[in-house]
Amino acid sequence: MSKKLIWKDLDRKKLNSCRIFDLYEVSRLSPVGRERRFFILDAPDWVTVIPVLTDEHGDECFLIVEQFRHGSSSITLEFPAGIVDEGESPENAALRELIEETGYMAGNLINLGSVSPNPAFMDNLTHTFAAFNLELVAKQNLDDDEFIHIHKIPVKEIQKKMGTEHYSNGVMMMALAFYNRWRKGI
Amino acid sequence: MSKKLIWKDLDRKKLNSCRIFDLYEVSRLSPVGRERRFFILDAPDWVTVIPVLTDEHGDECFLIVEQFRHGSSSITLEFPAGIVDEGESPENAALRELIEETGYMAGNLINLGSVSPNPAFMDNLTHTFAAFNLELVAKQNLDDDEFIHIHKIPVKEIQKKMGTEHYSNGVMMMALAFYNRWRKGI
Q1: What's the pLDDT tens digit per position in A41-68?
Q2: pLDDT band at residue A37, thresholds of 50, 70 and 90?
């Protein structure tokens, strides 16, 4: 990588605290010595869990959550996902989000990879896991502003529709891409 | 989709204007009638262009831009990408970003799909295109805060590494997933 592309930090100022991220204005010095200001979201890491199970016909399915999303003002179909709490490992966050949103406990959790959801203005990572040996052990345990329906949907359908219709969350495309590469390797 | 999951808009207040997005606080009424506040980024749409060409060995390559990213404070390897200007079509934005960042003009542009980069708190879409019949017609034409190196990298290498090392931008995983589905269909 070329060091000629690197900007130098000058200072940063917090503009807002917004529960799921803090907004900062940062000043940086360009590779040719010009000062510029940028806006950055400082956010905790995220996790996405792909829960893999078999339906009553023997078809391989993913567990999918249906929920209202406040950015797009629309209902989406997604893998269970959430925020890694402070001091929590991504693995524990994945297991916790899975059981809270679906009631399922995973006997086997595979780490598929981590990536920046958007390095242009975010400083966090999103971690993707696959969950196997699923057992329904609890009821959903949702925050009082969470309303989620659960569906068991054939993998084939999700592979075909991801990125279209209600499968409209790009972070789920990242997760499925990690899963597909891992599956090819096993 | 279940209408029981839908929240109702009450009001919204702009907190900050941040050049590449505006930060809003919105109030909404939950499906069971509780009022909650959420933070949302109102952003223009984005485009990503996958430029496909052949190198001097006859291997299929993508054009890749190497640049410093201010969110992650790191250098990344990505497809050319940018913001759709007001009144501009995503197609024109894709052609414009391609020529500005790389100097290449595309003879053939394929629309691969659009998805929300993050419906949890963003209201925009990111559009992905593949560009073929590329011809080097100009020098890079960068903003004075853009510093970009260009590379021709074999598709096989990018397929293997996307989401790892310097291929650390999740939006590029979305783009490559659209491209791979389209390639399977041709």
Answers
A1: 999 999 999 999 999 999 999 999 999 9
A2: very high
Nearest to A65 by CA among A47, A81, A85, A54: A81
Which of helix, strand or coil describes residue A170? helix
Residue B128, number of CB atoms within 10 A of its CB: 30
- What CATH homologous superfamily does B46-185 map to? Nucleoside Triphosphate Pyrophosphohydrolase (3.90.79.10)
Name the E strands within chain A.
Answer: 8-17, 22-29, 35-42, 46-54, 60-69, 74-78, 81-83, 104-115, 126-136, 148-154
Q: Which of B69, B129, B146 is most worth mutating to test chain A (most A CB atoms within 10 A of its CB)?
A: B69
Of residues B20 and A141, which shows the higher confidence score? B20
Dihedral of CA atoms A95, A155, A102, A48 in degrees, nearest 10, equals: 40
Whether the complex's predicted ipTM surpasses the cut of 0.90? yes
Q: Calculate mean pLDDT across residues B176-180.
A: 98
Partner-chain contact A7 B68, CB within 8 Å: yes
Cα distance between residue B121 and residue A184, in whole Å: 33
Q: Would you put residue A182 in left (φ > 0), alpha (ψ -120 to 50) or beta?
A: alpha
Contact B120 A69 (CB under 8 A): yes
Residues of chain A contacting residue B122, judged by C-beta atoms under 8 Å apart = 71-72
In chain A, residues under CATH classification 3.90.79.10 are 46-185
pTM: 0.96
Integer angstrom CA distances of residue A68 from A74, A136, A146, B29, B30: 6, 24, 9, 12, 10
What's the rounded Cα separation, in Å, for the pair B5 and A112? 30
Q: What is the pLDDT of residues B10-36, one digit of tens each?
A: 999 999 999 999 999 999 999 999 999
Instruction: Mutation target for B interface from A77, A147, A157: give the one with most B CBs within 10 A.
Output: A147
How many Cα atoms occupy the beta-carbon half-sphere of B181 within 13 Å? 22
Cα(A169)–Cα(A163) distance, rounded to whole angstroms?
7
Give B171's contacts (C-beta < 8 A, 6+ positions apart): A117, A118, A170, B46, B48, B78, B81, B117, B126
